[in-house]
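@channel anyone free to eyeball this complex?
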Amino acid sequence: EDQVTQSPEALRLQEGESSSLNCSYTVSGLRGLFWYRQDPGKGPEFLFTLYSAGEEKEKERLKATLTKKESFLHITAPKPEDSATYLCAVHYSGGYNKLIFGAGTRLAVHP
Amino acid sequence: EPEVTQTPSHQVTQMGQEVILRCVPISNHLYFYWYRQILGQKVEFLVSFYNNEISEKSEIFDDQFSVERPDGSNFTLKIRSTKLEDSAMYFCASSESAGGVYEQYFGPGTRLTVT
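replying in thread with the prediction:
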């Protein structure tokens, strides 16, 4: 069974059109939820860590939030350079320090 | 800004050959990892390494795989006899410590192609 599910699989936005990406998780004992950005052929680039429900983090046009079941990555007024795959990963108490990744959301922002 | 580096960026090998993928983690980090990503699939955990020993490994990490920290800076992944299904991007990552929840920083990856 999937422990980390991301939706949508792909999202196409016009420049300036705000939207949200979803990451739902079913692991118990969540210790941290991570958001990464991945450009084609590159390694995941760390964006945010969220530790507990209600927490929010912001960086430029990105804002990440966390509830007990899911996390959202809100993108405000995106630009073409925000185009990438956004990955969600969880660290849970039964998993030592490994991260369990979702499949990602491919975001394309068109001018 | 410190970063994880990996060499080579692309490795082509024939089935049955041994390959060694190399990584230089961030210098003050203590916990090291290998992940892989088959084209179009999720990033998957392979192994974690702390204090010169494996702390956890996945089902993928069978006897054909091994890891080593041969000196104070390098961290390697060896695949003894490569198979076609080992073709993937291999990412090294490191984190500051192991006792809490620490961000893992990833390298740019090595694309392994097994023919």
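from a first look: Chain A is about 0% helix and 55% strand.
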